[in-house]
Design brief:
The complex is a heterodimer of chains A (about 450) and B (about 475). Chain A is α+β, with helices and mostly antiparallel strands and about 450 residues long. Chain A contains nine helices and 17 strands. The longest helix of chain A has 20 residues. The chains are: A alpha+beta (about 450), B alpha+beta (about 475). Chain B: GO terms for molecular function: metallopeptidase activity.
């Protein structure tokens, strides 16, 4: 379901901007225009807390004068403002240096096929209805068990937007998409023993969201499970990253094989193309054309066609993650990843979560990570963690106030198994990941 | 008041509005029995320049403006915003948001606030404080001076950012408050290689000033030298220890400890809701008696300073902890009213498109008596942490982390060798009770902090003297 009239309205503005850039002497230009409308409501302790109406738009242009580049953006689409924006971009380009790698993508790499990816499902819901869902969800969480002592509330968000991208090579495309979510967060215990947790569901189509009951119950269960958490003594042990934490590990890998990190030589995976970086059972691939998925796109942020392809297979790094500029810097071709990856999928193994716990046997299950202690240059990894101590495949007690540390290069090689309990709520689709061993610091 | 006239002129008149139009929108908001209402107008100019590989690689410029309208009734908030500052759109937004008010409460006037306040920074437009050629020249000079420092340097990245933000806040009592907020920042990152080992060092600074800030005291070049020094130290770093040990934190930026361990937990919203590990603990001991911690938005020219917060309340120097005893919380208007206390000038928002909430400004600990060298000498075995990356806190359990980017082992009272970055983890409500020595070398950070909360980013500052903490968990790999 795409409103062509709205897409055309935005296309006209983008074309106007590209024409203006040409008028002002640019040898090439690209422009993007996005409009987003939304509603967010939250409820706490059984009553509405906030109602927010969102209405955002932004337009950005990049101009090239030969190999010099400048960018500018605004949220004012009056024709005077558009002229001024192009002028600001041109003025910056005059001061930028000649950069032999800079420029628009090669024309033959631009996307030419635009399948319907089923991304647009506006949710016909008003504030009152959204509030009722949030209240229901929070009530279920609060009423789940008498251990639930307080609440940060539940919220419902719905967004619908239109994005158009064009460049002076004649590319001009747009699409509409939607995104809805339901989330909840409650507290259990009191005083020094207080704990909090949350759960959320997100989807392009509201009918695919978990119900208020599912989200509310899961929130309550997760929160109660954290009560009476203790620290661990300092040790080495196997670590199981729950699926929602495993995506961070894979995200760090993608960061390290991204063009920007590579050409700046600030990556712990420099010069690893076609080498073994993970165990041979690991396959990681991109699926840009999944219908209705959160990361689907038929072209990247430069208009380059996306591709379904393997990034890692048999544990060997098959491809970097590149946009036009970084690819040229590295003497390669863009992989259609300007702006990021599209439904990056780690091939699931045969074990469900219970099976993964059995494989872990005795060790740490990590369900939350804190801080940004990941060094992309060296791969050194040290983060705050909480989760559960597991013995003989059975959860024993919750743990907190510990750190887990290692080096990502070794951590990636020491993956023992990947679960089939895949978390589909993000652009990285991965199940739980078991690592052979990490350093735990605690009391 | 010339500043108010200047901003009213640029934001209202510039969009064809008059102050009577603001009154009309306010009248719609106040037609429901609300406790508070405001309209927040904003106009922002932003630019960034970056250099890498020895060339000026990128520059960008942006102009944004918009207005947000808000009503508050009890603890309920209705909010809408638009990037079009036009009367019909603002009236429609006002009509939408007042629908949240369903229960008839008495309209009340807000607490009276001061009508004048000192200017902590000049209403400068930093984007125009240098011409573009001079900005480029500065970047190139910093790049080449930095590259000369060490033959092992492989890459240098320098960035320069400026923002020029004008805000106009209309409150329900008919008052208008304005602020013009400059903000600049520069950053230098160095990648260095030796025997195949690759390490990074990064340093930057800034404040509410214009680009001349970087020319004063050789600051821009000092960032480069410091980035090189940090990369040199990291090239020597060995595995960090793992476990609970005595930790000495250096002065300045390590004050991120205070921001994470206690700052967030003392924000009014969490305490009003009873979700913070510090809830209901005013008057209790939460730190050793060596510790006095303030949140001070009134420091001249600092990154976290504001003349008025985003609700029009003048900022204050708020004592959070005095000699170890919890004194109070940081408040915006909504939470102050519901808790029956005064707002403290901590109501901040990322932009017109975001709701205000209690946020920190510049959070720091006052100096103590100890000589920093005496503090190091007193440690038999421990960690000396001099620089940090980011941090995070769970305000409910009180657990917080922050990650070192420059740290050394202390052995027999001496700093011995550098160790790799490690995350430190502790418990907010008791970490400061373990502070056994406080240095006399209080310093503020160089002006690089950005704080995130509920998806909103705002610039902040931190600071502290050298501190000795008897027992904090260090997340190294050497078990």
């Amino acid at each position: 379901m795409q409103n062509q009239e709205e897409i055309n309205r935005l296309k006209n503005v983008v074309q106007q901007l590209l024409d203006e850039a040409k008028q002002q002497g640019a040898s090439g230009a690209e422009a993007a225009f996005s409009v987003d409308n939304g509603l967010s409501v939250s409820a706490r302790l059984g009553e509405v807390e906030t109602v927010e109406y969102h209405c955002d738009q932004g337009i950005g242009v990049t101009v090239y004068f030969g190999q010099k580049k400048g960018s500018a953006s605004t949220n004012d689409i009056s024709s005077d403002s558009l002229k001024e924006t192009v002028k600001a971009a041109c003025s910056i380009a005059r001061y930028a240096s000649d950069d032999e790698y800079s420029g628009l993508p090669d024309a033959e790499l631009l996307a030419t096929e635009f399948p319907d990816l089923d991304l647009n499902h506006p949710w016909d819901i008003n504030a009152e209805q959204a509030i009722n869902i949030a209240i229901e969800c929070e009530n279920i969480a609060r009423g789940y068990d008498k251990a639930i002592s307080n609440s940060e509330g539940a919220s419902v968000n719905t967004h619908q937007g239109t994005r158009v991208f064009g460049n002076s090579l004649g590319f001009l495309q747009g699409y509409q998409s939607s995104r809805h979510s339901l989330s909840c967060s409650v507290l259990a215990g009191s005083g020094d023993a207080m704990q909090r947790d949350y759960w959320y569901s997100v989807a392009r189509d509201a009918t695919a969201l978990e119900s208020a009951r599912q989200v509310g119950e899961k929130t309550a269960q997760r929160t109660i499970a954290r009560l009476n958490a203790r620290s661990l003594s300092t040790r080495q042990c196997p670590v199981l990253f729950a699926a929602e934490m495993a995506s961070g590990l894979i995200g760090a890998l993608i960061g390290a094989i991204s063009g920007g990190s590579l050409y700046r030589k600030s990556s712990f995976l420099l010069d690893t193309l076609d080498t073994q970086i993970m165990p041979d059972f690991v396959r990681i691939h991109e699926q840009p054309f999944l219908r209705g998925a959160l990361g689907s796109a038929s072209y990247d942020s430069e208009g380059v066609a996306t591709k379904a392809r393997d990034i890692v297979s048999d544990g060997i790094l098959r491809s970097y993650v590149l946009g036009t500029y970084s690819a040229r810097k590295l003497g390669m071709q863009t992989t259609g990843n300007a702006g990021g990856v599209h439904n990056l999928t780690v091939e699931p193994g045969s074990n469900d979560f219970a099976g993964m716990l059995k494989l872990l046997d005795t060790g740490l299950l990590v369900t939350e990570l804190m801080g940004q202690g990941v060094n992309r240059v060296t791969g050194d990894y040290s983060r705050g963690a909480s989760g559960f101590w597991v013995e003989n495949g059975v959860i024993q007690y919750p743990v907190q106030e510990i750190t887990i540390a290692g080096n990502l290069k070794t951590m990636l090689r020491n993956i023992v198994a990947i679960g089939n309990d895949v978390d589909l709520r993000g652009n990285i689709r991965v199940g739980s990941i078991l690592l052979e061993q990490m350093a735990i610091a605690g009391e | 008041m010339p500043l108010l006239e200047q901003v009213t002129q640029s934001i209202l008149a510039g969009n064809g509005l008059q102050t009577q139009d603001v009154d009309r929108v306010m009248a719609v908001l106040l037609s429901a029995p609300v406790d508070a209402a405001d309209i927040y107008f904003q106009s922002s100019h932003f630019e960034s320049w970056s250099m890498e590989g020895g060339i000026i690689k990128e520059g960008s410029h942006s102009i944004e403006h918009g207005a947000g309208v808000r009503v508050v009734s009890g603890d309920k908030t209705g909010f809408a915003y638009s990037d079009r500052i036009e009367l019909p759109i603002l009236l429609e937004a006002a009509n939408n948001v007042k629908a949240i008010v369903r229960h008839g409460q008495q309209a009340r006037r807000q607490i009276e606030v001061a009508k004048s306040w000192p200017q902590l920074y000049q209403p400068l437009n930093p984007l125009k404080s240098l011409d573009d050629q001079a900005k480029i020249d500065l970047l190139k000079r910093v790049d080449s001076e930095t590259r000369k420092q060490d033959s092992r340097i492989e890459e240098v990245m320098v960035s320069l950012i400026a923002a020029y933000d004008s805000v106009l806040i209309a409150n329900q009592d008919g008052s208008l408050a304005a602020d013009v907020r400059p903000l600049v920042r520069m950053n230098v990152t160095v990648i260095m290689v030796e025997n195949g080992r690759r390490e990074q060092g990064s340093m930057g600074g800034g404040g509410r000033s214009d680009y001349s800030f970087f020319l004063e005291n050789d600051r821009a070049f000092e960032y480069g030298r410091e980035a090189v020094r940090l990369a040199q130290v990291n090239l020597q770093a060995q595995e960090a220890p793992a476990g609970n040990m005595t930790v000495v934190l250096g002065p300045g930026w390590p004050g991120i400890l205070l921001h994470e361990a206690i700052g967030h937990g003392l924000e009014g919203d969490f305490n009003r809701k009873g979700t913070s590990a510090f809830s209901g603990r005013v008057g209790e001991r939460v730190a050793s008696d060596l510790c006095t911690v303030v949140d001070d938005g009134t420091l001249v020219g600092r990154r976290g300073s504001l003349n008025i917060d985003d609700e029009g309340t003048p900022t204050e120097n708020t004592v959070l902890i005095e000699k170890g005893i919890l004194k109070g919380y940081m408040q915006d208007k909504l939470n102050a009213r519901l808790m029956g206390v005064k707002p403290t000038g901590n109501g901040r928002r990322e932009s017109y498109a975001h709701l205000p909430m209690p946020r920190m400004t510049n959070t720091y600990m006052l100096p103590g008596q100890s000589d920093p060298e005496e503090i190091i000498r007193s440690v038999k075995k421990g960690l000396y942490a001099r620089n940090f990356g980011g941090g995070q806190v769970d305000i409910t359990s009180g657990k917080f982390v922050f990650s070192t980017s420059e740290a050394y082992l202390i052995e027999d009272g001496k700093i011995t060798r550098p160790v790799k970055g490690a995350t430190l983890i502790g418990n907010g409500p008791d970490v400061l009770t373990k502070v056994s020595m406080v240095g006399n070398d209080m310093a503020l950070d160089s002006g690089v902090g950005t704080c995130g909360k509920d998806g909103q980013s705002v610039p902040v500052g931190v600071g502290q003297p050298t501190l000795k903490i008897d027992g904090l968990t260090v997340g190294g790999t050497s078990v």
